[in-house]
Amino acid sequence: MHRVAQRRIIIPFLLPALLLLGVFFLYPLVRTVDISFTEWSRTGSYTYVGIDNYTRVIDDPGYRNALKNAFLFTLVGGCMLFPVAIAIAWALHQRIHGERFFRFVVFAPVVLSVAVVALLWKFVYHPTLGLINPALEGVGLDVLARTWLGDPATALPAVAFTTVWHGIGIWVVLLSAGFERLPPDVLEAGRIDGAGEWRLFRSVMLPMMRDLFRILVVLWIVQSMQAFAFVFIMTGGGPFGSTDIVGTLMYREAFERSEFGYAAAMGVILVVIMLAVAQIVNKVMKRDELHY
Amino acid sequence: MSSTTDVRPAVGASGPGPARGHRRGRRGGRRRGSDRAPFRRFHLIIYLLLGAFVFSTASAFAWVFNVSMKTNAEFIGTRPWTPAEGWRWQNYADAWSSANVGSFFGNSVLVSVSATVLGVVVSAFAAYPLARIPFRGGGVVLGVFLLGLMVPWMVTFIPLYVTMQDLGLLDSRLGLALVYATYNLPFNVFVLVGFMRTLPGELEEAAAVDGAGPTRTFLRIILPLTGPGLASVSIISFLQNWNEFFYALVLIHSPEKMTLPLGLFQLGQAADYGTNWVTLFAGMIITVVPVLVVFALLQNQVTKGLTAGALKG
């Protein structure tokens, strides 16, 4: 009986949300593909040019450079992120003093704005006014001091490090949940068999969390291939294009040169590549279910 | 998209599930000392590792605060860790008024509060039928909402810009708030549907027997019971809207309409070519402190919520 009355509210309840979603999300989403087949003039008029944009993107050395940097960024950032995040999650699993405080500090950067964190680190890396070089000189390691963001060799890793520093809290929490789900009896059995903590970590915990790692790696790839804000604020793609990634390239094409169609094509291609890479990594890291 | 769909069950299973209430978990924060492991030697390494992390983070913030108390001449002339000569709160006043941080702050409050309220209210209404009234096409509608969690921003920002232009909402705080509210929706609906589904199914029947119509049932019975879920999505939405940079960059151009992250970015650009660094540092502190206070007070809720939101990419 009340079911009939309930049916009357379905549409009015859903309508406002669907309206917002339709106008600001679904419509733009559908329009992307349409826009990627057009050529825009600076006055805002456009003509259809077929797949021209796509063929141009494929031949564009700037795009290939951006793609290479995006892969590099993903790889370098991943190598910085996962060992540290796993170590911290493991450490927090050890029921130590001040766990709540440590969790607070590790997670705190996550709630800060990307803009603030990027600016902060841009100054930390500053060769003379920053924090790192004077500190290195202070302890006598002058040889390591360099213009971190101004040197093509160090700029990309420096930006990747900042990205990792900002987001590591989320990965630590996800990994912590993985550590907590490990069956205690298996760990106990290992301890009784005389395994040390390191042995336990390497031979029992890591293999058992393999599925979680696979998911997190895929998630990292999908996220970091789309990186934008840190690079945009800290280096703007420079020096000499050494940190130019697809996001910054697209932004410039779209808003500095009004090449909306071309930029949209770049985005579509990146997403296709990204999903393919994620799929491959997913397959490679997958293995038969293990039962303990 | 199948690669991204894999992510969801894992994230859902790994703790932040909003519906599961208080976990008996060890990270509940109310642990007694007896639950703690006895000290072992390898714990030293752990403290060293975590201590290094804490030290680097704390020193970065201490440095920003210290610089915000210096003069520009001091900033250039002294070593970074030389303490400021005095408490120059004047820098904060300068940042607030002459560097427009006050105006950015006002815009940020306006945009993020209105977007959060709109997003939460609209998604609460949408979540109710999706969670508790079985109807044909319900699964598809839910799927459309969840699609928003997976589609990369890269494929939508150009058409969004063009659409906003067509609607006359470019460079407007209203437009930005509407966009923020929309981009909060998928996560809000995802969490609230999960939350509402855990409420007992007899609630509606009992209310109907007492003669309450469905709207009244929703407003007076279901909504109050969803309180914790609403609190959770409100906090997360607010933090996200407060910190959002990219859409503000794309959609807002006039300095008097900029939000804090975008405004600070502009100040940072200006500091590259100018000489006014200390104001920027004071501005950074002004941006960061409210967020850190919110986080300190609501740590557990924020952690759970943002972790569930990690799949948003």
Q: What can you see in these coordinates?
A:
- The complex is a heterodimer of chains A (292) and B (313).
- Chain A is an all-alpha fold.
- Chain A has 13 helices and 2 strands; from the N terminus they run αββαααααααααααα.
- In chain A, strands 1-2 form a two-stranded antiparallel sheet.
- The longest helix of chain A is centred in the first third of the chain and has 34 residues, at 2-35.
- The termini of chain A are far apart.
- The model of chain A has no long low-confidence stretch (mean pLDDT 85).
- Chain B has a domain at 101-202 and 228-312: MetI-like fold (Orthogonal Bundle).
- Chain B has 16 helices and no strands.
- Chain B has helices at residues 2-5, 7-13, 43-68, 72-77, 90-97, 101-132, 138-150, 157-167, 173-197, 202-209, 214-225, 227-243, 246-251, 260-273, 277-297, 299-308.
- The radius of gyration of chain B is 23 Å and the shape is globular.
- The model of chain B is unreliable at 1-34 (pLDDT under 50).
- Classes of the chains: A mainly alpha (292), B mainly alpha (313).
- The interface between A and B is large, with 103 and 115 residues.
CATH class of the domain at 101-202 and 228-312 in chain B: Mainly Alpha
Q: Please compute the radius of gyration of chain A using only Cα atoms.
A: 24 Å
**Shape by Cα distribution of chain B:** globular
Point out poorly predicted stretches of chain A: none
Q: Kindly name the structural category of chain A.
A: mainly alpha
Order of helices and strands of chain A: HEEHHHHHHHHHHHH
Oligomer: heterodimer
Instruction: Tell me how many strands of chain B there are.
Output: 0
The amount of helix of chain B comes to: over 70%
Quickly give the structural class of chain B: mainly alpha
CATH level 3 topology of the domain at 101-202 and 228-312 in chain B: MetI-like fold
CATH superfamily of the domain at 101-202 and 228-312 in chain B: MetI-like
For the record, the count of structural domains of chain A works out to: 1
Mean pLDDT level of chain B: 80
Number of helices of chain B: 16
CATH architecture of the domain at 101-202 and 228-312 in chain B: Orthogonal Bundle
